Structures are given as C-alpha cells and as structure tokens.
Amino acid sequence: MSSFPRKQSVRHRLDHVWSGYLQWGVANPEQQRVLKQIQVWAGLTEESKQSGFAPFVEIQRMAEDAVTQKIYRDVPQAFIGAALAALAEMTMEFMVREPERAEMYRTAGFEMLWAGITRR
Q: Which residue would you say has higher pLDDT here, 43 or 86?
C-alpha cells in the first residue's frame, strides 16, 4: 500500500485498488482461487479476519470517506465489497481469455462498478 494515493479522490483511490487487485489476480490465478475459497470458508475466525484485514486500513478509510461524502449508495459496505469481488472475478476471467483487450476490460469493469455503487 506504499503507493496508495491517499490524498486523491475516492474514485481515484478505488480505481487504484481495482487495478492492483486485477493485476495481482491475473498474475496469480492460483492464489486468487485460494483467496476466494478462504473468503467463503465458515471456519475462519473473527480474529483471523481482523488480522488479515490489517494491511488494508487505507481501503477502509477510503470506504469511510465515500460514506461521509455521500458518494456510495446507501447499502451495507459488505454488499459493495461483494459487488466489487464478483465484478473483479468476471473482469479477470475476460482479461485472461482476451489479453489483447485486457485494458478495455479493466476500464469497462471499473466503470460498471463505479456506476453500480455510487449515487446518481
């Protein structure tokens, strides 16, 4: 998170997270599948969840800024996170399937995410 654009807009910060996650997922498909399995595993303790989330404090701050600034829709943050994860997974699949169009899919996926989670 050393390159995280802390002082930029919520949109810019979310795009940074989106792009980084997609880049990591496409480069590390096996780890991405494991992460997906971990996220739905019922045996994961609250302590483990908190410990694993510690490096992502900046993302939590970004979400809080979006709520404070009334940027996000009035839905639970967990719902927004789930939407991001589902759309990211689909976007990664298309990026892998058509690498020559990866940037188009990255951009289109982000625009769909932004339009879906923000107020009009």
A: 86
Query: Domain map of the chain by residue range?
Result: 10-117
d(CA 88, CA 32): 11
Spatial CA neighbour of 85 closest among 42, 28, 22, 27: 22
For 76-91, what is each residue's pLDDT tens digit? 988 998 899 899 999 9
The total number of residues shown for the chain amounts to 120
| Per-residue DSSP letter, 4 | -
Type of residue numbered 5: P
Q: Which CATH class is domain 10-117?
A: mainly alpha
Please give the model's pTM, rounded to 2 decimal places: 0.81
Tell me which amino acid residue 53 is.
Answer: F
